[in-house]
Every structure is written in structure tokens, then in C-alpha cells.
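Let us practice reading a record.
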Amino acid sequence: MRKITLIITAIFLFLAIFSCEYQDNFMDQSAIDTKIIIDEESQIKLNPTSLSKEQIEKICCGKKFTATLYAGQHINVGTLTVSNNNTNLYVTYNVKEDWWLSETHLFVGREVDLPLTGSGNPKIGHFPYHGTHDLTQRYTFTIPLKNLEDCFIISAHASVVQKRNGEITSSETAFAKYNDKNENHDFDGNRWGWYFDYCKKVCDDNKDDDGNDDD
């Protein structure tokens, strides 16, 4: 009788563990492959920027950091550029040709704070910066540097669509990937996606945040 009880207990434990793993995997997949539900409590509101690509390049210091934006894991649909001045970090999504941004989701901060599920997949809805767009090919997040350490990580996600002859023909999820293996990292879970390291560029003290030389 005791042996039967132990067997039944073992079966229930197995089913409980399997159920938890299945639910976790389901949530991991849902977090990326379906409409993303934004956690309002984790969202940080930012003021939109109207700066052009040329204006951002003028006011920032050092060489800009460029990663490739991959849709469906392997389709090169554009770039993610990152740069900073003394005050702000500028993260710009650029998609090319017939691709368009419908949503952008961005994490910038310490690696330990990156929102992940128990199995190591990204919780996109908990990323602190979000943008919903009426189909654009360029979008910039302007993030104050004051709360960021000298070096941190960036994980950039987007929902993109492909339009041909005015009609949407494809819808994909996309992540930015830096091609240097030493600075690029895969998520530990079973869902594809990446994050990478970034360190603040040191700015010339004689140059103010408007890109003008001080007298």
C-alpha cells in the first residue's frame, strides 16, 4: 500500500512540474509571438524627440554604436543606432525598404534588472520603454543618462510589418543584434532574441549638449 502511495505521489509531482514548465514555455512564446500586453507599472514615460539623424550625430560624442535589426531571427530589416552626449542616450530604430515599425520595446539598464521569465526568456511587456506607431520607418528613444551606470545593457525589440503595393504582406517580431560576440548575448531561454553591452562615450568638456563649442 505504501509503495502504491509513493507511486501516485510521484506521478502527481511529475504532472505538477510538467504543467509549470508547459505554462512557462507557453508564456514565453506568448510574450513574443502575440500582441504584447504592456505592464503599465514598469513603464517609464519619455518625452518624444523631433531631432533628425543629422542633429543627433552632431550633438553626440564618439562613434555611434550600430546593431542589426533582425525580423524572424534571420531577416535583416534595418539597424539600431545608439549614441550619447553629456545628458542623454539616443536609441534609434531604422527600418529599410518596405518594412515598417508598428511597436517598439526597449530595455536599458543593469543586466540584473532585465525582465525575464523563470526559464530565461524576455518579458517584453515589462520593458520600461515603449512606442506604438502608425507605421513609421524611424523612431528614437531619448533616455536621460543620470540614472544609468557607466556601462549597461540594451535589449531592443520591435514589431514590424512588410508592405507591398500598399498592402501588409508579413508581420514579424524583431530584435537588435550586435555582431561582436564579446558584446552580444543570447537569452538563456528557448526563445530567440538578444541584448548587448554599451558603455557611455566620454564627451569633450568643451562641447555642450547642443553640439556647439563653448567660448
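A brief commentary: The two ends are 91 Å apart (CA to CA).
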